[in-house]
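USER: If only I could read backbone structure tokens as easily as an amino acid sequence. It would mean a lot if you studied the pair and described how this chain folds. Here is the record:
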Amino acid sequence: MKKNDNKKRIKLIDSFNYAVNGIITAVGTERNMKIHYATAIIVLTLSLFFDLSRVEFMILLLTISLVIVSELINTAIEKTIDMITEEYHPIAKIVKDISAGAVLIAAVNSVIVGYLLFFEKLDSLGNILLLKIRNSSTHMTIIAIMLVLIFTIGFKMLFYKKRGGTHFQGGAVSGHSALGFCIATIIATMTTNTMATALSYILALLIAESRVEGGIHTTGEVVAGGVLGLLVGILIFQIIS
């Protein structure tokens, strides 16, 4: 029974790794995905400077996700058709056009949502420069974690060193270390309890150490991940706010 549970757990981890591998491959090979990737970073960062309500923030996240998911599906459809036939076929063209149309609708929707969310706030641009962020710590925490994940994917895409079947087993930075140190920095900023802060960073160090012990990342990659997490956490919770 325990062996079966362990196998299921491994399969679940593999499925997650392959999914992330697909995202990184799409970002690395598709021009439109690079555009969506860069736009997501810009929009998420700018959202910190606007007093978005929880509902508005949810709409923004759903809109970004819809565009990226549509582009991933479009890419998968195009690759499948190219694998089946290299010759021109009218039905293949129709399928590609329809999938591209889905991306276009998602992109147009994102522009409309962006306009509705930000236009009135941009209308008082002079006040925005003097506005202190009034977002909840929940908003800033989610943005920090998402930016760490996005930057990690970007670095893995650019500096991937193949040591296994997926991008998780190599790359310029350790994503686990980056997340660990980012979360530890967030906790340190949100609490005045020295013990809680110390324990948070100890847990982050243990996560980093486990990546080296497991042979998944080098010490340099773990350090780079830790620095990335620290910088993003400090940027959002100390400098921006």
